[in-house]
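TOKENISED FOLD:
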Amino acid sequence: MSEPDSEAYAASKGGIIALTHALAASLSKDSIVVNSISPGWIETGHYDRLRSIDHEQHFSNRVGHPLDIVKACFYLTDPDNRFVTGTNVTVDGGMTKKMIYEE
């Protein structure tokens, strides 16, 4: 999602997503899968200081934890998971789908 004055961020995010599917195409001949993860709001500091409205902005009704990203990494790197490639996985508790951003 874009916010005002975030052109560099948006361009870099778009570049990573484009690079992900381009690498997946190029490396598929060697049976290499390539995926990316776009994390949403992942609180790495004081989770207990978050407000109710912070959690309510997410379909999951909570702000993310680092472990949520770890679990996505485990899924994408599981040796039995060779069919998912060239995709970007958004791990954001549904926040970008809900599109309600409180200050």
